[in-house]
Amino acid sequence: MNKSELLSKIAEKSNLTKVESERALNAFLETVEETLSKGEKVQLVGFGTFESRERKAREGRNPRNPEEVIKIPASVAPVFKAGKSLKESVNNAHSKKKK
Fold first, then answer.
1. Which of 20, 16, 22, 17 is nearest to 4 (CA)?
2. Domain range for residue 91?
3. Are residues 10 and 32 both part of a single domain?
4. SS3 letters across the chain
5. What is the mean pLDDT of residues 69-75?
6. Buried/exposed 49-84: b ≥16 CB within 10 Å, e otherwise
7. Who contacts 61 (Cβ-Cβ below 8 Å, separation ≥6)?
8. For residue 21, with 0-12 CB atoms within 10 Å meaning exposed, 13-18 middle and 19 or more buried, which class applies?
9. Would you say residue 74 has pLDDT above 80?
């Protein structure tokens, strides 16, 4: 599902126009981005948690030349951890497909 398809679904389920849905989705995304940039997390009970994690500097291998060792600098990465309800919903949907 791409952003356009997501906006159509949001509009359909919320009885909002696509323009209103886009404004709401963009506001959500901007808010999550701003919050993570401050080092805080966004926790949506049952759905999941958006947070940022620090990655230490480390050594890696150049994929084009595996003998070459490269230094990977420290960074901060955004991560999403699914909540219990979301995990259960996805697992149930997949287990039904397998039958």
1. 22
2. 42-99
3. yes
4. CCHHHHHHHHHHHHCCCHHHHHHHHHHHHHHHHHHHHCCCCEEECCCEEEEEEEECCEEEEECCEEEEEEEECCEEEEEEEECHHHHHHHHHHHHHHHC
5. 95
6. ebbbeeeeeeeeeeeeeeeeeeeeeeeeeeeeeebe
7. 67, 68, 69, 70
8. buried
9. yes
- Over residues 42-55, the pLDDT tens digits come to 999 999 999 999 99
Averaged over 56-74, what is the pLDDT? 94
Task: Based on the fold, state whether residues 46 and 74 are members of the same structural domain.
Answer: yes
Asked whether residue 53 falls in the same domain as residue 94, the answer is yes
Measured torsion, CA atoms of residues 43, 46, 47, 52, in degrees rounded to the nearest 10: 30
With the C-alpha atoms ordered 12, 98, 44, 75, is the resulting torsion angle positive or negative?
negative
pTM for the whole structure:
0.78
Residues 18 and 57 in one domain: no
